[in-house]
Design brief:
By secondary structure, the protein is an alpha+beta fold. It has 8 helices and 10 strands.
């Protein structure tokens, strides 16, 4: 019997092994893993276009919502057509045609050394700041600017919060603030998504009459007064501090300051 086995080829010897032998068990396990990985890869590739479309749609919905013009019954793409995307150079506060606003990736630009700078002072906890970002203009019926929507991000307690802030045409009155991505604690820091807390931002002001940045997220009202105050989230001190830091960072001269000055002067 041993001589007969020796005369068999490797495949026949493998097939002759008992079904519960170690080689056959390993062969079945490896084969199943390979087949499963091939199926998962094929599904991931086939779904990628759909995922990108849904990602873009979610982004557009968030912009529509923060601008106060989202209507669930209206086609998102059609509604978003009212917005003008522009790539903004932060240092000059002017729009640039160096990039295509329809495809420019703000998040990728912030990680790319070619389009970002490392921060020495980093109150928002972002590490690097993109030199270019995409802003959105919403015009009124007469063609004048009605609202400006700008991306903002910064670190909270557990995660980086990504969102948009909408300002009125004067570049100082806040219309809304909305985050579309974060991993803050449910029931605490995640209350940044609570409609009641988001509603507190509407009508608040960034700067006082002297031009000093006064907007603050805190437990108590600052000496600047209630027009510049947002109540901190209960039980979420660090998330509230993170939101305060990121909003003040992006609305300062380091962030959108030059752009807001140009907007106020009618140069946009």
């Amino acid at each position: 019997m041993s001589d007969a086995n020796n005369n068999m080829g490797p495949i026949r010897r493998f097939l002759a092994l008992p079904a519960d032998s170690v080689p056959k068990t390993l062969f079945v396990a490896v084969t199943l893993c390979l087949v499963a990985s091939m199926i998962v890869s094929a599904v991931a590739v086939s779904l990628r276009p759909t995922q990108e479309i849904n990602k873009l749609k979610d982004k557009q919905i968030n912009i529509l919502q923060v601008a106060g013009v989202y209507d669930p019954s209206q086609d998102v793409l059609e509604a978003f057509g009212a917005f003008e995307p522009h790539v903004l150079e932060l240092s000059t506060g002017q729009f640039t045609d160096q990039f295509d606003a329809a495809t420019f990736d703000d998040v990728a630009a912030a990680d790319d050394p070619a389009t970002s700078v490392e921060l020495d002072e980093d109150p928002a906890g972002i590490g690097r700041k993109a030199e270019f970002v995409t802003v959105y203009l919403l015009r009124g019926e007469g063609g004048s600017i009605d609202k400006v929507i700008m991306p903002v991000h910064g670190y909270g307690l557990w995660s980086t919060l990504y969102g948009y802030i909408a300002l009125e045409a004067n570049g100082n009155d806040i219309y809304g603030l909305q985050f579309y991505s974060h991993a803050e604690t449910p029931g605490l820091g995640a209350e940044v998504d609570n409609p009641r807390w988001k509603a507190l931002w509407k009508g608040k002001k960034l700067k006082d009459e002297s031009g000093a940045l006064q907007i603050t997220v805190a437990k108590s009202v600052s000496p600047a007064g209630p027009d510049y105050h947002i109540d901190a989230l209960a039980g979420a001190t660090l998330t509230s501090a993170g939101v305060n830091n990121l909003v003040r960072f992006w609305m300062s001269e380091t962030g959108y300051g030059p752009f807001l000055d140009n907007l106020k002067a009618g140069e946009i």
